[in-house]
UniProtKB/TrEMBL annotation:
Gene3D superfamilies: Phosphoglycerate mutase-like
InterPro entries: His_Pase_superF_clade-1, His_PPase_superfam, Phosphoglycerate_Mutase
Annotated CDD domains: HP_PGM_like (cd07067)
Protein name: Phosphoglycerate mutase (2,3-diphosphoglycerate-dependent)
Gene Ontology CC, one term: cytosol
Keyword Hydrolase appears in the UniProt entry: yes
Species for this entry: Scardovia wiggsiae F0424
Domain of life: Bacteria
Pfam families hit by this protein: His_Phos_1
């Protein structure tokens, strides 16, 4: 799996939380997508997946448009856009300044910021504390978040089986910053710098054994490349 973080958006530029909400790619974000496409242009993708947000769809399309193997394919290949691949849902805090949002989540627990929440309580607490601070409690809890993300991996495995993709088939997925960080924390908590989100347009590589349960199915081959 070649997992690419979408190109920079205006919310990224303005340092605002962007989960299920959406903002357009900036000019730099379009360049992020084009550069990723150039780096991956000779990878023979058998399938592609992205969230149903515009930023992910635009990034995916730019990469596939540049891909020589995808363009020359003689038959259809699955390209699936699904809500299972969305970023974490921040509820009431969608579009808020990141510093303000994470202060609201962590300050009642003596951790006035994202990094301090992670350091003191772990990454899962960032989701649970934000849901607690959300006056509507719409933000995803850690359990709600992972149930949805796990369903995305199940969709990939199911698609591979239904389309008869051979073992070792390269697959493209467009993902999101906090989700990539969360996956790395879950599947490779040591040996990588997880103090900041991966760059827009960066490439992370997973080996995904669809015949195993998820916690033992993922091995990391590269991060934030």
């Amino acid at each position: 799996m070649y997992i690419v973080r979408h190109g920079q958006t205006y919310f990224n530029r303005y340092n605002r939380l962007q989960g299920w909400s959406n903002s357009p790619l900036t000019e730099a974000g379009v360049e992020d997508a084009l550069k990723a496409g150039d780096r991956l242009k000779n990878i023979g993708f058998s399938a592609a997946f992205c969230s149903d947000t515009t930023r992910a769809q635009q990034t995916a399309q730019a990469i596939l448009d540049a891909n020589t193997c995808w363009a020359s394919s003689t038959g259809p290949r699955p390209f699936i856009s699904d809500a299972a691949f969305r970023e974490q849902f921040y509820g009431y805090f969608e579009g808020h300044d990141m510093g303000e949002a994470w202060w609201a989540a962590g300050a009642p627990h003596g951790a006035p910021g994202y990094a301090s929440i992670v350091e003191k309580y772990g990454l899962a607490a960032t989701r649970d504390f934000l849901k607690e601070a959300d006056p509507f409690h719409d933000a995803e809890s850690d359990a709600e978040y992972w149930a949805r993300i796990d369903s995305g991996f199940a969709l990939i495995a199911r698609t591979a089986e239904e389309w008869g993709l051979p073992d070792g088939s390269p697959v493209l997925q467009i993902s999101h910053g906090n989700t990539l960080l969360s996956m790395m924390s879950r599947f490779a908590p040591e040996g990588y710098d997880l103090t900041r989100r991966p760059a827009n347009g960066s490439i992370t590589r997973f080996d995904f054994d669809t015949g195993k349960t998820l916690d033992s199915a993922i091995s990391v081959a590269g991060y934030n490349e």
